[in-house]
């Protein structure tokens, strides 16, 4: 109803002003960026941040994800005390880390720990894209590698939820080294025949997609998730070809054999329980 009202008035191309943005009170209502439906924030949360109208999956924070997957009161965090240094004295890096710590109440862009899902024990890692875009620096890599090592020792399946812009530029080559470190830890898991499930959420790109995110024994993605290494424009310029519209979406990757499943968030916990039950 509101949408029609606004459309009739719009005679000129307008750039949304700060005031226009404020028309939807933050915290009470949220607009779906995919279909434009205005959603009540509380209902959206109850529906695991999936738009009731079109099924768009809103980003989820690490605590929200853990709440939606792990059995209530059954999560014990690992390595929460690990903090990033500023090894390259990168301008403003320390300040930005501090800002993100305050904003997210997290120490870094990944939370790892162990818990039970449907009664089955598992080591769990969840990346949080609010913290430096979920980028992988030394601490993120170290926490993921340690979680994989603990999973191997305990022989618990490791379930990792990825959401990342890639390697963290402020840590330069140290950040890139995490790709090798995490991959080596997962290779050891593989040799010991311990299950690793990677859940790729929107977005999973860059060095993260090129390392642990793609190394699952089972690779699952959420619908519509952007998954890829380099950006579309870079690839188009390199190969001098127009790429398909759905390129780098979860559905495209499933069609081309790079994923095992695309699962709605509403069915994700049940799917993981089935996988854990099957491998128990
Ligand atoms: Zn929607």
TrEMBL record:
Source domain of life is Bacteria
Pathway entry = Lipid metabolism; malonyl-CoA biosynthesis; malonyl-CoA from acetyl-CoA: step 1/1
Q: What class of enzyme is it?
A: transferase
Q: Which GO terms describe its molecular function?
A: acetyl-CoA carboxylase activity; ATP binding; carboxyl- or carbamoyltransferase activity; zinc ion binding
Q: Where are the zinc fingers (C4-type)?
A: 32-54
Keywords for this protein? ATP-binding, Cytoplasm, Fatty acid biosynthesis, Fatty acid metabolism, Lipid biosynthesis, Lipid metabolism, Metal-binding, Nucleotide-binding, Transferase, Zinc, Zinc-finger
Reaction(s) catalysed by this chain, per the record, are: N(6)-carboxybiotinyl-L-lysyl-[protein] + acetyl-CoA = N(6)-biotinyl-L-lysyl-[protein] + malonyl-CoA
Q: Which residues hold Zn(2+)?
A: 32, 35, 51, 54
Q: Does the keyword Lipid biosynthesis apply?
A: yes
Q: Example GO biological process term?
A: malonyl-CoA biosynthetic process
**Could you tell me where this protein is found in the cell?**
Cytoplasm
Q: Which residues form the CoA carboxyltransferase N-terminal domain?
A: 28-280
List required co-factors.
Answer: Zn(2+)
Which note does the record give on the cofactor?
A: Binds 1 zinc ion per subunit.
Write the Enzyme Commission number(s) for this entry.
Answer: 2.1.3.15
A GO cellular component annotated for this chain's UniProt record is: acetyl-CoA carboxylase complex
Q: Which Pfam families match?
A: Carboxyl_trans, Zn_ribbon_ACC
Write out the similarity annotation: Belongs to the AccD/PCCB family.
- Quaternary structure (record): Acetyl-CoA carboxylase is a heterohexamer composed of biotin carboxyl carrier protein (AccB), biotin carboxylase (AccC) and two subunits each of ACCase subunit alpha (AccA) and ACCase subunit beta (AccD).
Q: What does this protein do?
A: Component of the acetyl coenzyme A carboxylase (ACC) complex. Biotin carboxylase (BC) catalyzes the carboxylation of biotin on its carrier protein (BCCP) and then the CO(2) group is transferred by the transcarboxylase to acetyl-CoA to form malonyl-CoA.
Q: What is this protein called?
A: Acetyl-coenzyme A carboxylase carboxyl transferase subunit beta
Q: What is the lineage of its organism?
A: Bacteria, Bacillati, Bacillota, Bacilli, Bacillales
